[in-house]
C-alpha cells in the first residue's frame, strides 16, 4: 500500500503542476473572459483518463502502482473539477450567463466525448 500511495502522490504532484502551467499559459497568452485554461485541462484530462483506462483494459500486465499513478494521481491532480465549479459560480455571480452555459455544457459534453474518444483510441495502442 505504501508504494501505491507514493505513486499516487507523485502523479498528483506532476498533474497539479502541469495544470498550473497550462492555466498560466492561457491566462498570459489568451486573455479572454471564458476560463479557457481550466476548460482545456478538463477536456485533456478526460481524454487521458479514457486513454489510460482503455489501455489498461487491454494491457493487464501494467502494475497497479502505474495505474494509480496515471489515473488517481496524474489525472486526479491535473483535472480541475473543483476549479470548474468555482469558476462557474463566479460566472453566475457576475451575470455572465451565456458564458456559464457554454462553459458548463461544453465541459460536460466535450469532456464525455474526449473520454469516449480516448477509450476508443486505446484499442490501437
Automatic annotation (TrEMBL):
Q: Which UniProt keywords apply?
A: Cell inner membrane, Cell membrane, Ion channel, Ion transport, Membrane, Metal-binding, Sodium, Transmembrane, Transmembrane helix, Transport
Q: How does it sit in the membrane?
A: Multi-pass membrane protein
Q: Which residues cross the membrane?
A: 29-56, 68-86, 98-122
Summary of activators and inhibitors of this protein:
Na(+) is not transported, but it plays an essential structural role and its presence is essential for fluoride channel function.
Annotated positions binding Na(+): 76, 79
Q: Which family does it belong to?
A: Belongs to the fluoride channel Fluc/FEX (TC 1.A.43) family.
UniProt function note: Fluoride-specific ion channel. Important for reducing fluoride concentration in the cell, thus reducing its toxicity.
What this protein is called in its record is: Fluoride-specific ion channel FluC
User: Could you tell me the gene encoding this protein?
Assistant: crcB
Amino acid at each position: 500500500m505504501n508504494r501505491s500511495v507514493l505513486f499516487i502522490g507523485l502523479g498528483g504532484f506532476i498533474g497539479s503542476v502541469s495544470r498550473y502551467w497550462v492555466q498560466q499559459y492561457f491566462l498570459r497568452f489568451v486573455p479572454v473572459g471564458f476560463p479557457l485554461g481550466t476548460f482545456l485541462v478538463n477536456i485533456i484530462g478526460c481524454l487521458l483518463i479514457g486513454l489510460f483506462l482503455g489501455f489498461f483494459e487491454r494491457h493487464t500486465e501494467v502494475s497497479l502502482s502505474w495505474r494509480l499513478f496515471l489515473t488517481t494521481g496524474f489525472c486526479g491532480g491535473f483535472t480541475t473539477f473543483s476549479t470548474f465549479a468555482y469558476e462557474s459560480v463566479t460566472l453566475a455571480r457576475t451575470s455572465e450567463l451565456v458564458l456559464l452555459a457554454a462553459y458548463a455544457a461544453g465541459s460536460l459534453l466535450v469532456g464525455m466525448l474526449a473520454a469516449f474518444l480516448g477509450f476508443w483510441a486505446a484499442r490501437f495502442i
